[in-house]
Design brief:
alpha+beta, Peptide Deformylase, five-stranded antiparallel β-sheet, about 30% helix, globular, binds zinc ion
């Protein structure tokens, strides 16, 4: 297994619409393993393939179905998914703070459906449906957005989005000149 470099916004590659996976073959399973290792090392709760520069519909996540990660009942579930799609979303919504490995140190409160059912191909290529609530439901909706080139900042007001992206662009420039 190996750690993969995570793209940081602003980066045009994060705006790509990811392509479906034809089948979960050995290369896809290996990518899932490397993505999971990369996500856990970051650390993060979810990672999409497009965030490591591979525009395929692959997502990994590890999060609990509880309202917070520190909930006493929190038992994180690890999901490795190809071609995930939301087949049901609750009318009930939840306001929750989100972060993103491609938007380091940036957090925003966002309202989304509280529960979702996601259909996907698992690491063994089997079609599975799972209902997620709490942090996991939030995480999956965030990761599935990535597959359509949608970032957390795209769901904020244009003003807020520009402030965050400008901050990140500046940090990137600083890092580059630092390394040079
Ligand atoms: Zn993200």
């Amino acid at each position: 297994m190996s750690l993969l470099p995570i793209l940081i916004a602003p980066d045009r590659r994060l705006k790509a619409i990811s392509e479906p996976v034809a089948a979960v073959e050995a290369d896809v399973a290996r990518l899932m393993d490397n993505m999971l290792e990369t996500m856990l090392a970051a650390p993060g709760l979810g990672l999409s393939a497009v965030q490591v520069g591979i525009a395929r519909r692959i997502v990994v996540a590890r999060a609990p179905d509880t309202p917070t990660q520190s909930d006493p009942d929190a038992a994180p579930r690890t999901l490795m998914m190809a071609n995930p799609e939301i087949v049901w979303a609750s009318d009930e919504t939840a306001l929750m703070e989100e972060g993103c490995l491609s938007l380091p140190d940036q957090y925003a409160d966002l309202e989304r459906p509280a529960e979702v059912t996601v259909r996907y191909l698992d690491r063994g290529g089997e079609q599975v449906e799972t209902k997620a609530t709490g942090v996991l439901a939030r995480c999956l909706q965030h990761e599935l957005d990535h597959l359509d080139g949608v970032l957390l900042v795209d769901r904020l007001s244009p003003v807020r989005r520009n402030i965050i992206l400008r901050k990140l662009a500046k940090a990137k420039k600083f890092k580059q000149s630092d390394a040079a």
